[in-house]
Amino acid sequence: MQTRRFFLSSLLAAVSLLNAVSLPAQAAGKTSCVDAVHEANQALEEQNGKPIRNEAALVTLLRALNKDEVLPANYVTSEYAIRQGWSGKATDSLWKVWVLNQKSIGGDVVQSAGLAGGSTWYSADLESVRGLRSAKRVIYSPQSTTRYLTSNENSSRVEIAPCF
After folding, report:
1. Between vectors from CA 102 to CA 81 and to CA 97, what angle results, nearest 5°?
2. How does pLDDT run across 10-61, given as a tens digit for each residue?
3. Distance CA 134, CA 149 (A)
4. 3-class secondary structure, 153
5. What pTM, to 2 d.p., does this model score?
6. Residues 6+ apart with CB under 8 A from 26
């Protein structure tokens, strides 16, 4: 009986700790990444952009960026990919190079009008197919909670609300 009480009190303490950790994000006015991505995707489609088909993958990417401020390991920069033997041409698959199999391009610096000055902005490919680059990108900065979504290589973009 003592063990059961100890377990239950430990479980309740863990639940209250989890609630305490998640409340500051909600109190800061952030929405869930699922909702933020869906809203940004709808806005992108309204701009006559091609919508993101895999919203769940974008949610996972945003959560990784929010947590670690770096891209997941399946992303490599163009510079790294070229050093490994990729041609650098959008028409050539990354996956033809053995060490780049299942990788996507991400972490390249983006210089574009309309992005907040004082921050370095980066892009990450979304929905690459068989190692071929897509025009769909997320644009992010470790110095900002603002993220952008584009489906035309950044010629137009929509903001993704800060999310948790």
Report:
1. 45
2. 433 443 444 444 445 453 567 999 999 999 999 999 987 789 999 999 999 9
3. 13
4. coil
5. 0.79
6. 164
Taking the C-alpha atoms of 65, 121, 157 and 130 in order, what is their torsion angle to the nearest 10 degrees?
Answer: -60
Cα gap 75→115, rounded to integer Å: 22
Amino acid present at 103: K
Express each pLDDT in 101-138 by its tens digit. 999 999 999 987 778 777 899 999 999 999 999 999 99
Beta-carbon contacts of residue 127 (< 8 Å; ≥ 6 apart): 52, 53, 54, 57, 134, 136
Q: What is the residue whose two structure tokens read 């997941």?
A: 72
CB 58 within 8 A of CB 52: yes
Residue 163, both tokens: 């999310």
d(CA 112, CA 121): 9
CA gap 161, 164 in Å, rounded:
10
The CA distance from 19 to 9, in Å, is 15
